[in-house]
Amino acid sequence: MNIVVCVKHVPDAQGERGFSDDNTTDRENVDGLLSELDEYAVEAALKITEAEGGEVTALTVGPADAVDAVKKALQMGADKAVHVSDDAIAGSDALATSLILAEAIKKVGQPDIVLFGLASTDGGMSVVPAMVAERLGLPQVTQVSTLEVADGNVTGRRDSDVASETLVASIPAVVSVTDQINEPRYPSFKGIMAAKKKPVEEMSLGDLGVDAGQVGLDNASTKVLDTTKRPPREQGEVITDEGDGGKKLVEFLAGQKLI
Amino acid sequence: MSDFSRNPQLNRLLGIDGLLTEDEREVQALVRRFCDDQVRPHLPTWYDEATVPARELAKGLGDLGLLGMHLEGYGCAGSTATTYGIACHELEAADSGIRSLVSVQGSLAMFAIWRWGSEEQKNEWLPRMAAGEAIGCFGLTEPDFGSDPGGMRTFAKRDGDDWVLNGTKMWITNGSVADVAVVWAQTDDKIRGFVVPTDTPGFTATEVTKKMSLRASVTAELSLVDVRLPADAVFPEVRGLKGPLSCLSEARFGIVFGSIGAARDSLETAIDYAESRKVFGKPLGGYQLTQGKLADMTLEVSKGMLLALHLGRLKDGDGVTPEQISLGKLNNCREAIAVARECRTILGANGISTEYSPIRHAGNLESVMTYEGTSEVHQLVIGNALTGEPAFR
């Protein structure tokens, strides 16, 4: 069972996140890390290969620092990694990202399962898994909280507000998993040391046969025109209890349509 | 990767990050994340109730590869000494009791078997101990013999091929949760070390309660009454105090780093508190007396960490002497407890609550400055190194 896990290097949500001059996510002035939601995908992949055998390849697209995301996956236990990096990729939208990922997955060799997390913790669009599935012509089982591999199929449960759906697809398939599926492991010290010896293959757009004119900010089908910083939180309202505190509290909550 | 200190201003002042390798920073981040998830949220309760889930923690620490991490082979990670020191530092930033669990397992019990044990003893115990599946303890100190272990009364007598052990060991970390005890005993041929499975008839461990220090750590008294062991239970080569003292040197090395972790955590807590607590309408940190305290404490954390790293680089390079480790143990424990106590004063009345770390660290450090050689013993070790005049007795 060979699995490619697609992971993203995102700005640390605990730091000060912002935008660059061209309204793309600022990746220069913040510390980055493997998107927490992608850790669940890495864990899911490792669990499958530990049970079934096979190899886990961590794949990421991003600037030089993005290699840290696949390194973390290697520390957790992935076998090898691919980092696609090219100046022309900067500012790519989801469509272009899915194109690059799909071509990289083909280059790695047709895996049995392509795994994704629920969404990136920066862009948060959740559309790339479906786009990659379309580009590869593979069935997609997205946003599942359970995952089983048996008899040439993947089976997962997708929970929504109104129903839980059980989805089955034949392998090869594209799967994305939620943060309910497992508890990602910590990389161990041995994992950290072992990761240094694991191969990280660097690829450029040329290696993938993707034309620079198909990707990047200038060729994006959507554009962020402007951003505004969220205003600082205003001072909350303090209700002084003069015998009618309860009533005023209820009035406030009702006014906010909270009750 | 994380910053050395959680407080950005303190981190910039200390500038330790630049002195650490990528591995060391990764290990610090790994230990910090583990402690944030699995240790720190529970510490006030563990401390209050004087209980700690040692077995569960050992498994988690074993999964991370932190048990006997600086040893080579037998399932151990084989890290550098400094990397191990950094792990101790971050564990003790959470609690000295958790670092003690790791020190006793890795530097005392495992190191003793790794350094002095037979191939069979190593193969039997080390892989399981590295994985945290078996817990070890180290029986040297006795009720009446602490700084003078050579006077120990525990005796191992030959009976045919067997050994029969009798005696009492005191203040034994992990004692009542251990699967194996390394026990040092007098024999007809000097002091020797024995590997004692704790289910051997005649071996009992009684937890020491009513402690005011290291409450999130298991401490026990070991009683050995006609404990019969096979011939191969003894460490084959080593005789005399050299055996146990070599292990203490290892554990002390971890304490040199660890104690500064407790000080750093106390200081971070005090700086946060001084920034947010208002006194007479302005932050406590805006008063000169508070700033004086914070500045002086930052000096000691800075110097202590530099000394720890210096000893770590020596140990990873040409080697470090026991006397040099005494410099670190003496200075860093002494300064760490002073820092923790001073931080407590900045927190005022809140400082006596276990919701804040300084008083817990200060309480713990009473033990840390006592075990693995008291401050007084380390003064004498250093005095002897300088003058050539042993003044121990």
UniProtKB/TrEMBL annotation, chain A:
UniProt entry keywords in alphabetical sequence: Electron transport, Transport
SMART domains, alphabetized: ETF
One CC-aspect GO term: cytosol
InterPro entries: ETF_a/b_N, ETF_b, ETF_beta_N, Rossmann-like_a/b/a_fold
Cofactor(s) recorded in Swiss-Prot or TrEMBL: FAD
Gene3D superfamilies noted in UniProt: HUPs (3.40.50.620)
Domain Electron transfer flavoprotein alpha/beta-subunit N-terminal, first and last residues per copy: 22-212
Domain of life of the organism encoding this protein: Bacteria
GO MF, any single term: electron transfer activity
Oligomer and partners: Heterodimer of an alpha and a beta subunit.
Protein's job: The electron transfer flavoprotein serves as a specific electron acceptor for other dehydrogenases. It transfers the electrons to the main respiratory chain via ETF-ubiquinone oxidoreductase (ETF dehydrogenase).
Membership in a protein family: Belongs to the ETF beta-subunit/FixA family.
Protein name: Electron transfer flavoprotein subunit beta
Organism of this sequence: Dermacoccus abyssi
TrEMBL record, chain B:
Keyword Transit peptide: yes
InterPro entries associated with the record: Acyl-CoA_Oxase/DH_mid-dom, Acyl-CoA_Oxase/DH_mid-dom_sf, AcylCo_DH-like_C, AcylCo_DH/oxidase_C, AcylCoA_DH/ox_N, AcylCoA_DH/ox_N_sf, AcylCoA_DH/oxidase_NM_dom_sf, Glutaryl-CoA_DH_mitochondrial
Protein family according to the UniProt entry: Belongs to the acyl-CoA dehydrogenase family.
Ranges of residues in domain Acyl-CoA oxidase/dehydrogenase middle: 137-227
All residue ranges annotated as the Acyl-CoA dehydrogenase/oxidase N-terminal domain in the record: 21-133
Pfam families according to UniProt: Acyl-CoA_dh_1 (PF00441), Acyl-CoA_dh_M (PF02770), Acyl-CoA_dh_N (PF02771)
GO biological process, one term: fatty-acyl-CoA biosynthetic process
Domain Acyl-CoA dehydrogenase/oxidase C-terminal: 240-386
GO molecular function, a single term: fatty-acyl-CoA binding
Name of the protein this chain belongs to: Acyl-CoA dehydrogenase
Recorded superkingdom: Bacteria
